[in-house]
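Researcher: Please predict.
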Amino acid sequence: MTAIAAPAVRRTASRRVIVDRILLYGAAGFLALWTLFPIYLIALAAFSERTAIYDYPKALLPTRFSADTMSFFVNSTGVLSSLRNSVIVALGTIVLGLLIGTPAGYALARFSFPG
């Protein structure tokens, strides 16, 4: 005997689920903008002319591109040596973390926990 297959029932998401998703994605988008907007303003100031940094109100879209501000910053006294020191400390931290974390992770993986 052959049975006729019933059509698949499509379940639509309830209004509450849809509203919850909209609120969640809206909050995530707001937090992303809250975090990225200052970084955008810093990058905009870094690649604009030095006189345009003090303009008020600031233009949110770049009007002219200039590397003068970045050139001035990089050529300032102590910037490159500070950058070198930061890279050395970061690499040392990575190596030290790996030297301590790798054996600790192996020991925890081999340890037999009760339960």
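Model: The chain is about 60% helix and 0% strand.
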